[in-house]
Amino acid sequence: IVAQILDEADSYINTLAILNTQLNGDHPAFVPGEAAVNGKPVQEAQNLFVKALESRLENNLDRIFRLLGLMYTPDDIYTAYQGIKSADPDARVNALEFLDNVLEKKIKKRVIPLIERTMAHSLTERVLNQFGAKISSDFEGMLAVLNGEDNWLKAYALYVIGQAQETQFVPHICGLVNHPDAMVKKFAGYALTKMGILEMTNGQENRQPDVF
Question: Angle between the 2-24 and 105-119 helix axes, to the nearest 10 degrees?
Answer without folding.
Answer: 30
